[in-house]
Amino acid sequence: MAVTSLDATTALIIVDLQHGIIGYPFMHPIGEVVQRSRTLLDAFRARDLPVVLVNVTGFAPGRTERPRRSEALAPDWAELIPELNPQPTDLRVTKRSWGAFANTDLEARLKALGVTQVVVTGVATGTGVEATARQAYELGFNVTLAIDAMTDANPEAHAYSLQHVFPRLGESGTTQAIIDLLDTRGNE
Predict the structure, then answer these.
(1) Tens of pLDDT along 116-145?
(2) What single-letter DSSP state applies at residue 118?
(3) What is the C-alpha to C-alpha distance for residues 161 and 110, in angstroms, rounded to an integer?
(4) pTM (2 d.p.)
(5) Where in the numbering of this chain does the Isochorismatase-like domain appear (predicted)?
(6) For residue 18, what pLDDT is reported?
(7) HEC readout, 71-113
(8) Which of 17, 66, 77, 116 has its CA 20 to 30 A from that of 7?
(9) Structural domain includes residue 29
(10) 20 burial type by CB count under 10 A (0-12 exposed, 13-18 middle, 19+ buried)
């Protein structure tokens, strides 16, 4: 479903644009994803709308069939990239699983600000972005996904999320379509 509206208090959630992840071999150039996320970030900040910057520092407990990484992570692995230009007013969330809401206080912080809708960007489409969007939906937030401000290393996961999962969670649109709605909303 195309993006058609934004609630009065919509927050932007940028997932995992951090030093240790942006060097992965993504299917879309990461520079474009960063630039579009930054464009949205600037638009939300200019309108005094909440911005959430999410990073990941570990793994959820439990067994999986996939072996855990054993190599040491670089000291700056979990640091947000400088292009995001974190501000004191930004909400910062450090997660240890795919989604930004699991085992964090993000839901309470957003609801305390009166947030009823979230726009989600970042990496990876089929994991961090999708899990965050699913959790937001399950918690009652309206969900919008900025589909040109996300990417994945797995083209099949990216396509599956866009075609099959996101339409069931909310609306999807381009960075420009979301900004156009922000502009329209400001003139009402």
Answers:
(1) 999 999 999 999 999 999 999 999 999 999
(2) E
(3) 25
(4) 0.93
(5) 10-176
(6) 96
(7) CCCCCCCCCECHHHCCCCCCEEEEECCCCCCCCCCHHHHHHHC
(8) 17
(9) yes
(10) middle
